Every structure is written in structure tokens, then in C-alpha cells.
Amino acid sequence: MPLDPGVARPYRAAMLAYAVKRLISLAISLLVASAVIFAVVEIAPGDPARFMLGINAQPDTVAALRAELGLDVPKWQRYLNWLGGMITGDFGTSYTYRTPVAQMVADRLWVSLPLALYALTLSTAIAFPAALIAAARRGRGPDVAVMGATQLGVAVPNFWFAMLLVLLFAINLGWFSAGGFPGWSDPLAALKALTLPAIALALPQAAILARVMRSSLIDVLGEDFIRTARAKGLSMRQALWRHGVRNALIPVLTILGLQFAFLLAGAIIIEQVFYLPGLGRLIFQAITQRDLVVVESVVMLLVFAVIMVNFAVDLAYAAVDPRLRRRA
């Protein structure tokens, strides 16, 4: 049902004010993050030009390569040039591969982004039913079983899950390949190659999400409106679905946003285990090769993705909880 015009106008105005406030905060956060990333990468020991030419390179050869790479200008000027390029979409050129960083990121993003979305989908599909069962059966057998499984999921590192999955499903059963990525020319083969990495990433995140949602649902089930719904004749399951889930979503949205950011930016070890050509593996290779412009640009892009996800979560907060709009 569409909103009444008298209600819709204040609603849109409040949402707009909230969005503008968050956008200003986002811009400031990005500027500070760019300065921190540039400073941290630049103070790391080692000269990229000397690393590329070797320790026996002549000083004049090193100086010529530094000039070619733009490393002979003051750091503040390099920062401004890099920041201006990032704003216009020019991420610079890789020192090692002499390839535009934007092209390298685009190629790797087609692995990391589907992997993150795949893992997040699996995590949500596992966590939501588990949390609902545990909350509805609090203190009983299903609750104990779910909490025990989530405790195990939180305690065990995802790379250990990954090695177990490779050992079982790739080596022993032969259902999946142990690593590599065939590309998206065959979507089914690509999804199959991403399945084990996605499961390895999803299981620990599903455990965290299930625990948070269970706690939130239990808090909501103790509220007066749930007791009123039960007094009107609704069963526990009906009250949970109709009134409990929506009111328990605020902390869950936070975890979902953080998990997507982590899955996109923090899958370096999993990509190494499965030899996936994603952003995490690109950062790892760039660090070992002292390819500073790749490290700076990719990390800044991941920070931008994290901040944008948090911005989307904040807007979802405002849509779910009207109190946030009134504060804005």
C-alpha cells in the first residue's frame, strides 16, 4: 500500500537528511583512509626500483627506473597525483606488469565478488533457519545442538575448513577440483570451482550470524508486543515470523554488512589455498613484489567497498527503525 502523501513527504525528507549526513561522513572517512593507506605503504622498507632491478643494479639505472615509475617526485605530490587519479578512475600502472591497475582489478573482481556473494548467500541460508530454530526452542535439544555447532564454527579457522574440504571432496571423493578457476565462459564450472572456497568462508560466518540473530530474537521474544500477540492467539512460530524477525534485524544487518566486507576483502588465505586469481591473491603478490601502486589502489578500493557497505547498512537501519530517521 502506498504511503499517504502527508506521511510520505516527512519520510522522504528524513531519509534524505539521514543519507546526506552519512555521505558527508563517508567522504571524510575515505579521505582519512587514503592518507593512512598511502603513508603506511610508503614507509614500508624497500625500494621498488631496486627490488625490480636486483641488488647488483647500477645507481644510475636505478635512478632512471625511479624517474620512469614516478618515484623521484616528493611524496606529497605522489599522494595528490594518486588521489586525483583514484577520483577520476585512473588507478595508475603496475610497476611489475606495466598494466593499468584498473584492468587488473576488473579481471580479479570477477572472481572475488561472486565468491563473496556466494559465501554470504550460503552463510545467510544456514544461519537464519538455525537461529530461528534455536530461539523458538530455547534451552531444549535443538537450541543446544545449534549453539554447539556455532561454537565449533567460531573456534575453527576457515583455512582449516578449507583444507578439510579439499582433502574430503577433492582428493578422496573427487567431486571438485582442488584449486584453480576456469573462468566464466562455463558458468556451471565456475560456480563449481567457487563452491568449496565459498563453503569454507561461509561456515564460520554462519556461526557468528546465527549466534547474533538467536540472541536478538530471544531479546525480542521477551517484549510486550510478543506477549500481546501470543495472548491474541498466535502461536510462538507465528509471533516469531510476523513480529519478531523484523524487530530483530538491526544487529543482524550490522553483521551482514561486516561479513560481506570481510568476505570481499579478507579472503586472501582462502584464495591462496584454492589458487583463485582474486583480489586477495593480487594484494599478496603485489606486496611480495613491492608493487606499491597496486597495493595502495586495491586496498583503497576495498576500503571504499567496506565504507559503502556500511553506508548501505545505515540506510537499511533507517528503513527498518524509524527512530534513526527522527534523530537525523
TrEMBL record:
Keywords: Cell membrane, Membrane, Transmembrane, Transmembrane helix, Transport. PROSITE patterns: ABC_TM1 (PS50928). Pfam families: BPD_transp_1, BPD_transp_1_N. Its main location: membrane. It comes from the Bacteria. InterPro entries: BPD_transp_1_N, MetI-like, MetI-like_sf. The keyword Cytoplasm does not apply. The keyword Transmembrane helix applies. Belongs to the binding-protein-dependent transport system permease family. This is Peptide/nickel transport system permease protein. Residues 109-313 form the ABC transmembrane type-1 domain. One of its GO terms (cellular component) is plasma membrane.
